[in-house]
Amino acid sequence: MLKLSLNLPRKMILLIVIFILSISVTQAIDYTIPCNTYSVESDDIDNDGDNDIVVGHFYTDTYCTIMENIGNGEFTLSHELSSTTYKWFRTVDNFDDNPLLDFVIHNWDGNLLVYYNSNFDHPYFYDVDVENRNIRWAHYGDFNGDGYYDIVYSSRDFGSDANTWGIMYNLGNHNFSAVEWYDCPDHAQNAAFTLFECRDLDHNGYDDIIAYSHVDVHIYYFSEEGFVLHSLNNQPTSSGMTVADFDNDNDYDIVLTHWAAQTEDNFRIYENLGYQEFIPRYHFVNSNWSEPISVDINNDNWIDIATIGDEIKKYFNESNLQFSEVSIQDYPDYGESYVEGCFSDFDGNGSQDIAIVRWGIDENNLTILYNDGEGYFLEEPQVNVGDDNVLEFTDYQLANYPNPFTGETTISFSLNTENTENAEIEIYNVKGQKIENLQITNSPNQQIIWNADNFANGVYFYKLVVDGIAVDTKKMILLK
What we know:
four-stranded antiparallel sheet
């Protein structure tokens, strides 16, 4: 205990007391978690209605850290998952009939670890059997349309051209099939797939695989007859890929960060025309070597592009697959080697905030920045933004039934306020992307059915918006 001498001047004593109090109560945006952070994702892990943070680590016994959102965008460390074998935290989503989220973790040696329903005491182990090759990447999608997420892998034997990819089908009841392995289309040392995105690109009810390598980007369309291979004929070199509905036409477009030789750097934007056809467009950028992230940054219902590196770069969607010039925002540099980031609504105000993990430093290696609602990121949670407007709608009801649901669910609300001109229900996926807008007019009490046949299993959010003001957001779970 610190003892203060009565001989000290009163002003000095006061300064010391203020200093001690500042140490104990200061709320920082930076958190110190186990070192060697390499990935970060966000979802509602504990099913309490707010978004938590999951950080993956490498070259350390702790391979996964869970930061619990304790309300208003503030976090505390709740779990450290440790092992000398499992090193790659990969994803959080739902892989069984229980609506609680599951964790998928793998290592280079071909072993898979799944924590079902966030039960960290009883993990399930699976042998992927990669024939002495290394697992480079893992992702998931419902490829055969049975309502369960399957897992897709890429495998690479370093120093050779033996590059493969494979699928392990989810059989239900925590069982998976043996992996079906396929050769990568290009047999070269740099042709292994290093990134997958899985989406239903052609609206046939089956997820397809967008497989990224530094040689080309391939699409494996799935149908009842199996996979059909297409190529985007992309020219190397590029640094990353993201997939979203950028033109709001209800199908998924593909964006690559592209460094064309002896030409300007650009985002190569492949517009989905339907019928398994894409057309390339271009948006020129200045030396953007970071991986693109698709997110609605400024809440205008158009998916923007962001990158997180030495600075945050924002390219605002101006519709018709046109993007603004770059808007750059700096944030503190603590001497880290590189960073990874993800977007999620941490403070519950409907805007996408940022979680950034920093590799190469042992302290302050997780940073949270909060969206002001228009795409600028601040150091304090923005929980009071818009409160003056929200107070008008304190007496209301919002619910959906059934929840979880299989094909469709009924969203109902009762709003006791006068002079309401327009109400609508907005549907969002877990990445914060708006996927449906259900218009309701001239009635304070309404029901509307959302048909989710064209969407994959998972967690979705529905938001009640009245006369342009967001009243409330709730969660629902689709299980086919």
